[in-house]
């Protein structure tokens, strides 16, 4: 893993994994509301290692890392979505122009999942998008503008009411169908919110109450199946020749 600056005029910090891998595709990983902590770095590293490709993890919070719910809520409330989408666009161009990736995908988790869907509608240069348990505000993301294939994963036991609970996931599914978006959606009956975060990857500085809440919604079989589905989806939409 290396730290890189994506743009000099307005500095955007990111972490690149697998920079020496030779695959002709790259993936932008978008972090949760906790910021760039150990958990999301572990997810990015795992993805890079498995696909033998370059993975870029932009720091959308400019160095801020939340350890408690109150911190995460405050940081999220100050988020400038237009600026964040600009940063994501810079990350996509970095992989294409400076890392010579012919295909670029985006995957996001929770808040990052919501941002990934928004990027699929608003950022040029993406070939596909994977969203884990994240739904953007309707006024910030017009799903009718999504023109790339997307894959979505939600836990049936998700307790994030009004954000990514089962009712919201089904409502999003209907909107995507009406818009004619090429998509596939998977619901995991035994999983809740944040189920892609393995207990052995939890950031040790997260508050114990946060770690316990994530653990209660974790299901290893759901995680394994979702990971395999994501890999298969990427490989279907990447030019691997």
UniProtKB/TrEMBL annotation:
Matches recorded under SUPFAM superfamilies: alpha/beta-Hydrolases
Stated name of the protein: Dienelactone hydrolase domain-containing protein
Stretches assigned to the Dienelactone hydrolase domain: 13-237
Annotated GO MF terms: hydrolase activity
Alphabetical list of Pfam families matching this protein: DLH (PF01738)
Top-rank taxon, per record: Eukaryota
Entry-linked InterPro entries: AB_hydrolase_fold, Dienelactn_hydro, Dienelactone_hydrolase-like
Origin species: Galdieria partita
């Amino acid at each position: 893993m290396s730290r890189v600056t994506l743009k000099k005029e307005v500095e955007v910090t990111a972490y690149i994994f697998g920079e020496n891998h030779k695959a002709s595709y790259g993936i932008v990983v978008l972090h949760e509301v906790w910021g760039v902590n150990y958990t999301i770095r572990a997810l990015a590293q795992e993805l890079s290692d498995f696909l033998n490709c370059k993975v870029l993890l932009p720091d959308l919070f400019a160095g801020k890392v939340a350890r408690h719910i109150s911190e995460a809520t405050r940081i999220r409330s100050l988020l400038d979505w237009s600026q964040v989408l600009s940063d994501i666009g810079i990350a996509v161009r970095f992989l294409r122009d400076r890392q010579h990736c012919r295909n670029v995908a985006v995957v996001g988790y929770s808040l990052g999942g919501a941002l990934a869907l928004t990027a699929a509608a608003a950022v040029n240069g993406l070939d596909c998008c994977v969203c884990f348990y994240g739904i953007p505000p309707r006024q910030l993301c017009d799903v009718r503008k999504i023109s790339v294939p997307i894959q979505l994963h939600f836990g049936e036991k998700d307790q994030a009411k009004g954000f990514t609970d089962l009712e919201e996931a089904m409502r999003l599914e209907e909107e995507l169908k009406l818009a004619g978006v090429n998509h596939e959606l998977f619901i995991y009956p035994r999983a809740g919110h944040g189920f892609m975060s393995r207990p052995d990857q939890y950031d040790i500085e997260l508050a114990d109450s946060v770690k316990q809440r994530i653990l209660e919604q974790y299901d290893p079989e759901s995680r394994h199946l979702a990971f395999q589905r994501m890999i298969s989806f990427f490989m279907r939409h990447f030019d691997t020749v």
